[in-house]
Sequence to fold (227 residues):
Amino acid sequence: NAGVTQTPKFQVLKTGQSMTLQCAQDMNHEYMSWYRQDPGMGLRLIHYSVGAGITDQGEVPNGYNVSRSTTEDFPLRLLSAAPSQTSVYFCASSRPGRSYNEQFFGPGTRLTVL
Amino acid sequence: GENVEQHPSTLSVQEGDSAVIKCTYSDSASNYFPWYKQELGKRPQLIIDIRSNVGEKKDQRIAVTLNKTAKHFSLHITETQPEDSAVYFCAASSYNQGGKLIFGQGTELSVKP
Fold:
């Protein structure tokens, strides 16, 4: 199993550009989430999904869109990038149920917005 | 919504000493409390977790305690080693919230040889 994969690893955007961060998992996990990590602020939840067709907002959803058309994929879209979105983005997945709460993280995408 | 506070933000100990990191949470519905370790440039990885029906859990040199009444939980690392140097994050969640985690701000642990 590849686990959770993310592409690209690095990206530089100009203000106003749009892009999609890709996330995929091959563990048949129903739950998937997106976090951003900024120095001194830990990991903050952007959006999450409990299954295909179902998404919900996290702590910092503004400026980001998500969709979940399949169990495997959970892309994160930046419609008009801003310098405040410069960050490291992590995707994570987990199984539902009381005994399966561990979230598995992808390797991250480092995004710089100029 | 849930809010998790973590202290201290930095912690420096001598090799062999113990390290303690503390977190508080706000939502009494939270019932799952994991701890993640993140080495420089790497992804967070789970090191230990505890559920609300348990007060303490140990795994070799690592232990976590939970006080539901006070809404706080702590990570204890004994006999620290240089390879324990990393950033540690606590988090809180509940089983019926889709597994979403709310993280603390992180603690940078430095173990000096």
Q: What stands out?
A: Chain B touches chain A through 24 residues (CB under 8 Å).
